[in-house]
């Protein structure tokens, strides 16, 4: 008996997303589009927990584009009441919520091939990749930068400073006098990450040794 195996056809929105990477242009601080993002989740288990919301803002030419933002809330198939006091997102609240597939579709349309920026980025990207994998899709292809690693490099002046310190978003925001009014909301934390990105890259690029690609996280970390 002959068996024929057909390769699973990915949805059109994924094909469109992949097409943005055909350009293969080198990313740089001056001309590339960066997207600072944050996700609020039901917890920290990337397999069990789910994304509640994603917020993002774009950065082009070293400026935050307040007219180019993204915010989406997801229907909650998994609910953890213990985290509501942190993010304030209720399972049956008044905010319009989309299915996981529709939310991720809109997110891919928004980010295109932009460099993604987040604080403790590995967690956010792993959560998004898990959502994509549940839809039968591969992981994100975007380059990713962690603002914590950027900030750590601005702090390393000698071998006496521990390079393994994990600076929180609050630590850095306080150091840079960034307003924390919208802390623990996806759009608010995305904006804080964007401000940290601009402040840290302004410091780091003064060095002749600065190379943006040095801060791209390796794909095997996701």
From TrEMBL:
SMART domains: EXOIII. It comes from the Bacteria. One of its GO terms (biological process) is DNA replication proofreading. Pfam families: RNase_T. One of its GO terms (cellular component) is cytosol. One of its GO terms (molecular function) is DNA binding. Keywords: Exonuclease, Hydrolase, Nuclease. Residues 33-206 form the Exonuclease domain. DNA polymerase III is a complex, multichain enzyme responsible for most of the replicative synthesis in bacteria. The epsilon subunit contain the editing function and is a proofreading 3'-5' exonuclease. DNA polymerase III contains a core (composed of alpha, epsilon and theta chains) that associates with a tau subunit. This core dimerizes to form the POLIII' complex. PolIII' associates with the gamma complex (composed of gamma, delta, delta', psi and chi chains) and with the beta chain to form the complete DNA polymerase III complex. This is 3'-5' exonuclease.
